[in-house]
């Protein structure tokens, strides 16, 4: 069964203050994750935690290499990774007790979405907060 994003989940994730671990967020300014994370931080007031292979600090926030290294709780794991690799990130999100996973525009893995839902996480797939926010007046 194909995943369909629930508008109520989209609204809640975009309007309720949360701590977003942004996987794939590096210091490379040409990457989409940089602009989207800036939007989350500045426009939506979210806390962001950069996660990348190098553990780069971004937007003045300490970076980490894995979700497991992040101290404290994570509300949303925002995935800027290839669809073929996102399943492992979703499994890490489940393992660390994240409340939701957000698979960015073009990132699709139905099996990973089902695992996350089965574990009680909210799931958004193939969507971008910058594109979705205006429908909620954000």
Jot down its keywords:
138 residues; 5-stranded parallel β-sheet; 5 strands; alpha/beta; Rossmann fold; 15% strand; 5 helices
Task: Explain what this protein looks like in three dimensions.
With 138 residues, the protein is α/β, with parallel strands linked by helices. The protein has a single domain, classed as NAD(P)-binding Rossmann-like Domain (Rossmann fold). 34% of the residues lie in helices and 15% in strands. The protein is built from 5 helices and 5 strands, in the order αβαββαβαβα. It has helices spanning 7-15, 32-42, 83-96, 110-118, 129-132; strands at residues 19-23, 47-51, 76-79, 100-103, 122-124. It has a 5-stranded parallel sheet with strand order 2-1-3-4-5, with helices on both faces. Strand 4 (100-103), helix 4 and strand 5 (122-124) form a beta-alpha-beta unit. Helix 3 runs parallel beside helix 4 (110-118). It is globular, with a radius of gyration of 13 Å.
Spell out the blueprint of helices and strands.
Blueprint: H1 7-15, E1 19-23, H2 32-42, E2 47-51, E3 76-79, H3 83-96, E4 100-103, H4 110-118, E5 122-124, H5 129-132
Parallel strand pairs: 1-2, 1-3, 3-4, 4-5
Helix pairs in contact: 3-4
């Amino acid at each position: 069964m194909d995943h369909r994003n629930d508008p109520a989940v989209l609204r809640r994730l975009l309007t309720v203050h949360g701590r977003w671990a942004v996987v794939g967020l590096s210091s490379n300014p040409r990457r989409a994750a940089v602009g989207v994370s800036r939007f989350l931080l500045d426009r939506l007031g979210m806390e962001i935690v950069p996660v990348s292979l190098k553990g780069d600090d971004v937007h003045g926030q300490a970076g980490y290499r894995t979700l497991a290294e992040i101290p404290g709780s994570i509300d949303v794991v925002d995935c800027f990774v290839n669809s073929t690799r996102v399943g492992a990130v979703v499994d890490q999100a489940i393992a660390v007790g994240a409340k939701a996973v957000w698979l960015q525009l073009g990132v699709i893995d139905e099996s990973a979405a089902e695992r996350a839902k089965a574990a009680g996480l909210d799931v958004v797939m193939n969507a971008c907060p910058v594109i979705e926010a205006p429908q909620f007046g954000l």
